[in-house]
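Let us practice reading a record.
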Amino acid sequence: MELLTLFIALPVFYILFMIWKWAGARRDQECYILDYECHKPTDDRMLGTEFCGELMKRTKNLGLPEYKFLLKAIVNSGIGEQTYGPRVVFSARENNPTLLDGMSEMEEFYEDSVAKLLARTGISPSEIDVLVVNVSMLSSVPSLSARIINHYRMREDIKVFNLTGMGCSASLISVDLVRNLFKSYKNLYALVVTSESLSPNWYSGNDKSMILSNCLFRSGGCAILLTNKRALKHKAMLRLKCLVRTHNGARDDSYGCCMQMEDEQGKVGFHLGKTLPKAATRAFLDNLREMSPKILPMRELFRFTVLYLVRKMRRSSNKTGGTTKTVVNFKTGVDHFCLHTGGKAVIDGIGMSLDLNEYDLEPARMTLHRFGNTSASSLWYVLGYMEAKRRLKKADRVFMISFGAGFKCNSCLWEVVRDLGDGNVWKDCINGYPPERLENPFMAKFGWINQQEDASTFKFLE
């Protein structure tokens, strides 16, 4: 009898042991954010209304149609006058930048943000196991990642990745890279450094599809410290639940809608094509199609499926029936929406697609107004706004959505591990947001351009 009991018990214990081992392995594969630090350039780099007017005046090869287009774009952009630009424009050398200008811009960012992040977390540079750097439009030799390693004297066996050309959604690509490393290696610290170099990429031509980027993009960056150490999970800020990447580069119209290229005069710029809205919508829908089952409860998926089928049957039986869309309620699986600040139209479009209200869109709108579109680091300024407003409570779910050239749409869902509300890049101005009325200083100075057509209205050029 005892022998029989032993034969029965051994398989049971073995199964329990394997379950325990599997659960432990799964815990080791978790991806946590310990902390992050958004960069706030110095005040002497602020692009105020007056300076922007002066900057446009000295762009001599622009004609009146281009000036009008440029002013209309900045008036309708949703960007305020406290955003930051590269030092090269303040020294009036934007038409003749050097490699040193780009390198200096990046050094000013990472020497500030990475140092503050490591000091606040108490992590030594020698403890970093993985370094991922993504700056899309600056490639140097040695690489930016090598320069960071040299500056902070990181150890020789660090795993290093230097990403370029990934566009505004690059920071989530970096997080995905780290997440995959965490599946194979235990007890790691990973540092993600994300920014964009504007100094060598200021467009000095007159192609309307390229001068638009001068209005939208601003200086910024973020350093993020991640880990899969189980012992640190209670100190973490966020835990990654899932991440989905969508790439529609196989479609020619998607591939060519955002592209660095030369204009007819040989001047290099960033082309934003007319097919961009359509490409972004397609990539967004493709991404949501895969992400929705991962983040929404079964009851919401069931409700949507039933309503969709009912609407489809009604339309087939009554060709003159209504065209009311069946909308998925993402708020059943998401508490906060962290949207890429690609522009006012981007924020409005995502809000309409997801049926979001002004409270949901507020973090993205305020970030666009205060910091502008800082490319891949924009998401973290939006997250910082939510944290500064003390919106992020334990167990809340944060949905990040970003777009990038290629064309790409990347998204992920984070779970808040503990209540958040520490001071960050917003601490000096958060009490002023949202203002009762979000005034656009460019509208006050240049808004009349929208109603005028003749050349005499361009008095500011005199």
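A brief commentary: The CA atoms of residues 136 and 164 lie 4 Å apart.
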